[in-house]
């Protein structure tokens, strides 16, 4: 898995990759987050094919990493490492509880669990999107 900085040419596939994972079109939000991410926004490629992306934003007290969309936890961790190498100060990331391997890796790198979330859906029992590839959310206020 290769990781590189997000480029303008990536928008042709990024929103299409995100739609089935998130379950709705949020291209405008993703573009806003990309602008706010600065140089830590990145994409993962496997054999030259896009397989994930990472965005985020600066906050009042910390930088928020997310969303992180990836085919597997290894790709997610590679993108997170890319972002962390470019960030200073406090960092937050809201991972999904189902991704225990990624959570354990992040805890091993010094992250600690602050809070948990349970996503609930009414009249839509199977939920929305593809939680297997949604490694981290943009934050509860943007999820």
Overall description:
This protein is α+β, with helices and mostly antiparallel strands and 143 residues long. It has helices at 11-22, 27-37, 73-84, 100-108, and strands at 2-5, 42-46, 49-58, 63-70, 91-95, 134-137. Strands 1, 2, 3, 4, 5 and 6 form a six-stranded mixed sheet that branches. The longest helix is centred in the first third of the chain and has 12 residues, at 11-22. The radius of gyration is 14 Å and the shape is globular. The mean pLDDT is 91.
SSE blueprint:
Elements: E1 2-5, H1 11-22, H2 27-37, E2 42-46, E3 49-58, E4 63-70, H3 73-84, E5 91-95, H4 100-108, E6 134-137
Parallel strand pairs: 4-5
Antiparallel strand pairs: 1-2, 2-3, 3-4, 4-6, 5-6
Helix pairs in contact: 3-4
For the largest beta-sheet, the strand count, sense and barrel status come to: 6 strands, mixed
CATH architecture: 3-Layer(aba) Sandwich
Q: Alpha-carbon distance between the termini?
A: 26 Å
- Mean pLDDT, all residues: 91
**Cα gyration radius (Å):** 14 Å
CATH superfamily: Gcn5-related N-acetyltransferase (GNAT)
* Strand tally: 6
Our count of helices gives 4
Under CATH, the topology can be stated as Aminopeptidase
Q: Helix and strand string, N-terminal first? A: EHHEEEHEHE
Oligomer: single chain
Instruction: Label the overall shape.
Output: globular
Structural domain count: 1
Portion of residues in beta strands equals 25-35%
- State the helical fraction: 25-40%
**Which spans of ≥5 residues are poorly predicted at pLDDT below 50?**
none
SS-based structural class? alpha+beta
Kindly provide the name of the CATH class. Alpha Beta
């Amino acid at each position: 898995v290769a990781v590189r900085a997000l480029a303008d040419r990536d928008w042709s596939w990024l929103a299409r990759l995100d739609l089935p994972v998130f379950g709705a079109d949020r291209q405008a939000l993703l573009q806003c987050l990309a602008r706010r991410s600065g140089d830590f926004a990145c994409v993962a490629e496997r054999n030259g094919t896009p397989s994930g992306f990472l965005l985020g934003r600066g906050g009042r007290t910390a930088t928020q990493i997310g969303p992180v969309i990836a085919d597997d936890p290894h790709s997610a961790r590679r993108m997170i490492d890319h972002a962390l190498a470019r960030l200073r100060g406090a960092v937050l990331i809201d991972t999904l509880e189902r991704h225990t391997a990624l959570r354990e890796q992040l805890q091993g790198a010094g992250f600690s669990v602050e809070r948990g979330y349970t996503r609930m859906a009414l009249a839509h029992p199977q939920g929305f999107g593809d939680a297997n590839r949604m490694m981290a959310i943009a934050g509860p206020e943007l999820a």
